[in-house]
Design a protein that fits this description.
Elements: H1 7-14, H2 23-32, H3 46-59, H4 74-85, H5 113-127, E1 129-131, H6 132-139, H7 144-155, E2 159-164, E3 170-174, H8 176-188, E4 197-198, H9 199-208, H10 218-224, H11 232-244, E5 247-251, H12 258-264, E6 272-276, E7 278-281, E8 284-287, E9 315-319, E10 322-325, E11 337-338, E12 345-346, H13 349-352, E13 357-360, H14 370-383, E14 385-389, E15 395-399, E16 403-408, H15 418-423, E17 426-429, H16 435-448, H17 455-467, H18 477-492, H19 500-510
Parallel strand pairs: 4-7, 5-16, 5-17, 8-12, 10-13, 13-16
Antiparallel strand pairs: 1-3, 2-3, 6-9, 7-8, 11-12, 14-15
Length: 514
């Protein structure tokens, strides 16, 4: 069956009053989607754009396919959008390569009733009591999936009904037997959050959201780096490195924007991915979603053809991650860490950065020895998989699917051996800006600060404080010097202006020991 010719299927998806709520219809779409691969998984598929256009028009009361009669209409616009005219970030949520739809049963989630029962017991022990729907909300599953299990727990005298409400939902409370079993479960692990996603489902999600499936274009790079000044030559060097989805060295003098470049790389790719809140491996719970490193991005509440009621709430939609670590990086952060009190495991940094960017800033100055880091990652960089040791002694294989950026002020060849350099194919020097670029930076920063740009004052600055002093240009200097001028003018209560004496004050402070 073709999803593009089955009008009844499209009509079910777009039906008025229940737009996007027919789960069976969406499962039919998923079932008829070609197997994932570089062509099928990439969300740059014009057929998908045509289907989305038809669904939205049917939901609005339109006919079937108008692409033949209106080649310049919405369908044509969507097709152009998927072929490079716009970033992947601009597309609707259904165009994502991976969307975690609600499962019909615990078995489909690869969970046993014993595992789910343990979480319910621990939740009720911590809270005291709870409505069935509150329990379902805590575990991030539809209530009907827990109904039979809660009835069985009642029959086994683990819980009792404390009360009911007008929605025919019961308030559950532990019995003494249930409380004793809950204590034993809590002693093993205190986790009672969202039901964990299976390791297999997580691996599949990474495969279908991989950076290697993205094909950023020059316009994508220009858009991602539009707020910083990069030469065409630098963009052309970054482009192939970003497209490889593997790794790169950014090196050069301090202050030229290596970290700024690295932190914007994820914006080149599709904007959103789906992450599991936690994954489960043989009874071990590993938290993956980290509010400190992941920016949650809920689906729009209206206007889309996909809504939250269709989504497996055990997953979180986040902006494609960029995780930055500096000199504080230790070997312990690269392995699964278990809290000795709660027995909850935390995913390592490289796992949290899957499908995104991991920036090792100030590489060479970490607390751990460089050779330790190289030995730890030399195989994952080559094979694109990582092996993690769990507290139980079990070893698991997980994807190593992120673009790793090593940012350093030092020469890469002075830091690592040839074997490691070979695995990081791209070594890009971030060079000092030219004089025209320095002038452009001063102009741009002055506009941002609400300051009038004066060419004659900048001429004087460059002549007396750069050329005469044989001082190299740095990309950070315009911002740093004008920030000092702003502070000086604010303190003195004088107008914010580019003046020769203001720059003299800023230079004396800024370059005092440089």
């Amino acid at each position: 069956m073709s999803i593009f010719r089955d009008e009844s299927l499209l009509a079910r998806i777009a039906k008025p009053g229940g737009r996007g709520n027919d789960e069976e219809a969406w499962r039919s779409v998923a079932a008829t989607t070609p197997p994932s691969g570089p062509a099928a998984s990439d969300d740059d598929d014009p057929r998908l754009a045509q289907m989305i256009d038809r669904i939205e028009r049917m939901a609005a009361g339109g006919k079937g396919d108008r692409s033949a009669s209106d080649p310049t209409g919405a369908a044509a616009a969507r097709t152009s959008r998927t072929t490079g005219a716009s970033r992947p970030a601009d597309r609707g949520p259904i165009a994502d390569a991976f969307v975690p739809l609600i499962r019909k049963s615990l078995a489909e989630m690869h969970l046993t009733e014993v595992e789910v029962e343990s979480l319910i017991l621990k939740y009720l022990l911590a809270r005291g009591d709870g409505l069935g729907r509150d329990i379902a909300e805590q575990l991030k599953v539809p209530f009907p999936l827990l109904d039979d299990l809660l009835r069985r727990m009642k029959a086994e005298q683990l819980v009792v009904y404390r009360s009911s409400n007008e929605l025919h939902d019961y308030c559950y409370q532990l019995t003494e037997l249930g409380r004793e079993r809950a204590r034993r479960c809590t002693a093993q692990c205190t986790y009672f959050g969202a039901l964990p996603v299976s390791l297999g489902d997580y691996v599949e999600s990474v495969r279908r959201q991989s950076l290697t499936l993205q094909r950023p274009t020059p316009s994508d790079l220009e858009l991602a780096f539009q707020d910083i000044l990069l030469s065409r030559r630098m963009l052309d060097r970054l482009g192939p490195a970003v497209n490889s989805g593997r790794g790169m060295f950014l090196y050069g003098s301090p202050g030229n924007g290596k970290s700024s470049i690295a932190k914007r790389i994820s914006q080149v790719f599709g904007k959103y991915i789906w992450l599991p809140r936690a994954i489960g491996v043989d009874g071990e719970v590993i938290r993956v979603f980290d509010p400190h490193n992941h920016m949650e991005a809920p689906l729009p509440t209206s206007g889309g053809i996909l809504d939250e009621s269709m989504i497996d709430q055990r997953w979180v939609r986040v902006e494609r991650p960029t995780i930055l670590v500096g000199g504080e990086l230790t070997m312990a952060q690269l392995d699964v860490a278990q809290n000795l009190e709660t027995h909850i495991c935390e995913a390592p940094l490289q796992m949290k950065s899957n499908c995104g960017t991991l920036v090792i800033d100030d590489f060479g100055r970490q607390r751990m020895r460089i050779d330790e880091l190289l030995n730890r990652w030399i195989v994952p960089l080559e094979e694109r998989v990582d092996f993690l040791n769990l507290p139980s002694g079990k070893t698991i294989q997980v994807p190593f699917d992120q673009l790793i950026v090593f940012s350093t002020n030092l020469e890469p060849r002075d830091l690592v051996d040839e074997a490691f350099l070979r695995r990081i194919a791209y070594k890009i020097e971030v060079v000092d800006p030219t004089e025209p670029e320095m002038r452009q930076l001063f102009r741009r920063v002055a506009e941002q600060m609400g300051m009038e740009y004066r060419e004659d004052v900048v001429d004087d600055l460059l002549e007396r404080h750069y050329r005469a002093a044989e001082r190299p240009y740095r990309c950070c200097h315009p911002w740093d010097l004008l920030t000092q001028i702003r502070a000086y003018c604010t303190y003195r209560g004088v107008p914010l202006e580019m003046r020769r004496e203001h720059f003299d004050f800023a230079v004396e402070n800024y370059f005092a020991v440089m």
